[in-house]
Amino acid sequence: MTMARIAVMGAGVLGLCAAFRLAQRGARITVVERAHPGAGASGGVVGALAPHVPEGWNAKKQVQFESLLAAAPFWAGVARIGGGDPGYARLGRVQPLTDKAAIDRARARAEGARTHWQGHGLWQVVPAGSLPGLRLRSPSGQVVHDTLSARISPRGAVAALVAALRRLEATLETGSAPPPRADAVIWATGADGLADLGRDLGTGMGAAVKGQAARLACDMPGAPQIFADGLHIVPHADGTVAIGSTSERAFDDPEATDDQLDALIARARRVCPDLAASPVVERWAGLRARAPSRAPILGPWPGRPGHYVLNGGFKIGFALAPFLADRIADLVLDGRDTIPEGFRVSDNLRP
What pTM value is reported for the model? Predict the structure, then answer.
């Protein structure tokens, strides 16, 4: 399949990463996007790349761990080829701990991190004021500090991928139908794509979940991200800090922001005093594709020879995209099935 003509439908992070890896491996790539690259959830602002809690280890947690390890060389390659900056940096993450019970649980999880993270990152309980360049409030005075987490600029990563694809002589087109002479078609079309797949298979294949997020003007160079009771606070290199996000199954306007975002911003300012006077420079809302299994869906589209599904990134699309790009390239170019357990189309079909 080297020099195969492959159409990638959708220019979000999953589709663009797959296109990049396929082009590196010699395929002739056409990316087809209805609007513009990053028009959907990949055009958001948060960009947190973080591991699962290191206990109750399973295949999905292992996939995300391997994805985090693959991120640095992948994004360095994108930057080297295209010249763009994806905004990747592995700066770690801190999590405030509420009380002694939370401290004890966090210390117990350190053993799981030693076992499962294989020396690639640390999980440790430290005093809240011990991390340079970061002020935060923790009810217990203690925080978890992990060194495996990283951040990326979602829009910077999309732009860097587009630049790299152009250098690799890929074609980017506006439209909604694949080129007629494509040898294979990969469908990475987000929430609309999950709905199309479900209609074709006659079963629900996921849902669109709305997320709201914001950017605040605050320069915190080199600071780790903060994760506090489901809230992400992510410093970026452009002098902003991203806050997010909500998870809304019911909504009227997928692109509107409201008091739910105001509540997130207020929480972030309580947790991180440096944000107390920082102005909001952007409010964002959009839809994320959530598959039934909560893991992305990857593999052949049943009943459509030569067509493949790559969808359902939900909140971890940027974290898993480099890893999944290799899996889809193995399948489409070499016929090798390296799809992880729980990620197949069949894993999401209802009995």
Answer: 0.96
